[in-house]
Amino acid sequence: MASFQAIYGTAPAVSATAPGRVNLLGEHTDYNQGYVLPTAIPQRTRVELARSPDGRFAYYSANLDARIDHVDGRALPVDFARYLHGCVEVLREDGHAVPPLRVRVESDVPIGAGLSSSAALEVATLRAIRELLSLPVDDVQLALLAQRAEVKYAGVRCGVLDQMASSLCDREHMLFLDTLTLERRVLPLPRDAELIVLDSGMPRDLADSAYNTRRAECEAAAQHLGVPSLRHVADPARTRDLPRPLDRRARHVVTENNRVLEAVTADAARFGQLMNDSHASLRDDYEVSVPALDALVGALQAQPGVLGARLTGAGFGGACVALARRGTADAARPAALAIYARGGWSGRVLV
User: Fold this and answer.
1) CA 254 from chain center: how many Å?
2) Please, are residues 313 and 20 in contact by the beta-carbon 8 Å criterion?
3) pLDDT digits 0-9 by tens, 6-31
4) How far from the centroid of its chain's Cα atoms is residue 245's Cα?
5) Which residues pair with 106 in a beta bridge?
6) Which is the CATH superfamily of the domain at 193-349?
7) Which CATH class is domain 4-188?
8) pTM of the full predicted structure?
9) Where are the domains of the chain?
10) Which of 188, 275, 282, 327 would suit a FRET pair with 38, their CA atoms being 20 to 30 Å apart?
11) What angle do CA 329, 335, 337 make, to 5 degrees?
């Protein structure tokens, strides 16, 4: 991987990092204005940058060993650079004068595993630009800018979960976030418990198209129920008379929001059961699981000390997260992967 110095012939002026995230509970609730409960993972994205002396933007990905140059007024850059330049453009839209930049990106956040690699990229980029230009942007504003960059310039109709998690989370706590009001609380992880995150090794081939379909189904369900969003429904019984499959989609969102609210004060054992219930709901009602994810979740749930497990992220591949009693995770990780491998799949440890 070439250094900033090797690429551009000078040292970077600033650098910043941001973590990936794992969502413990609250899946597919953020774009329904609901509740989420993420935490940060150890893997991070690092962005180095400096002002460009030649009037051109230059974006370099160390992971891809690829460079994309851009001149203002021309067609927007593509591939990884669209996320980076989207951050520049949303800052400009808010009245900040962002000059041409030279940028280098390096990341160990897995791509396509449901751990918010794109949000980590956006948040790290905005943090670095904020430092370079001394911008008066706080961490919540920064997350909202990052979300806007992804929606408008990367074309992903995401909720605010990923960017808020990357901007506000740390590894020792979980973030309770109301995505409608942005009310938030930093809470300790369940007592005497530790996390396991395993990559299923399955790329999320259908996640983007299914995400857009599920979002449209949720909007249709809310319209049938006469509410602005499914966040405004607390009783799952209200979903029974909806046409199929809207009844099941709405039931997942309503029950998932209730699970997050309960988890805020739950002990580790109950928290784990809520994770198990969440996976069953994602599998049966929201239909975003696949056999590999079900197998990996089942392998985790079978381990002594594991209190609960579920898929995390959009689904159709990616990662699974589990909660284990403290001191049991080191044995549970390889044992679960061994069972998973017997089904013909290959996973790996992330946390």
Assistant:
1) 20
2) no
3) 999 999 999 999 999 999 999 999 99
4) 26
5) 46
6) GHMP kinase, C-terminal domain (3.30.70.890)
7) alpha beta
8) 0.91
9) 4-188, 193-349
10) 327
11) 100
